[in-house]
Amino acid sequence: MRMSSFETEKVFLDRLGAKKCQNVKVFGFSRFCRYVFDTINFEQKNVIDDSTRAVIMSLALEQLDTSLEMFANSSGKKSVIEAMLSALKECKKAKISTEMLRNVSALVDDKTLKTKLRETALIIDTFDAIVEQSYIDPVSYTHLRAHETRGNL
Question: In 3D, which of 51, 99, 45 has the Cα closest to residue 78?
């Protein structure tokens, strides 16, 4: 079971009491990243949100337009932007690198699949390069999660 920050705070309050609970900070992952980066005086960047992700994905597609075959002329298409953002999140969650996508692409015989894998890798690399200039993306740091809270503190 995954708990919200509020539910986690309540568990701490019930188990530790009000006085000890004042010294406990409970964060969701995005807020936790911001807290850590602020604590270590990491270069100030904004935590990216879903709307900004969509704009940046559109920019990445626009920048690559002449290099793409399957995804050419896709920069303004909401369905393609959403599909690429979904692919990006799934790759990050599953720890699938763009190099892995390229390696699999080289092994695949189907021309359509080969092109989609290669272009997806290129789009993700371009998206990441744009994001890294100005933003912190918690999706890129999901591999840092030691474990999910499962109700046993």
Answer: 51
Going by C-alpha positions, the residue among 45, 60, 78, 68 that lies closest to residue 124 is 60
- Residue 4 — very low, low, confident or very high, per pLDDT cuts 50/70/90? low
Q: Read off the pLDDT of residues 121-135 as tens digits, 9 standing for 90 and up.
A: 999 999 999 998 888
What is the token pair recorded at 141?
A: 């740091």
Cα(153)–Cα(40) distance, rounded to whole angstroms?
26
CA geometry: angle at 31 spanning 27 and 36, to 5°?
95
Burial class (CB in 10 A: 0-12, 13-18, 19+), 123: buried
* Amino acid at residue number 153: L
Alpha carbons 48 and 88: distance in angstroms, whole number: 14
Angle (CA) 29 87 83, round 5°: 115
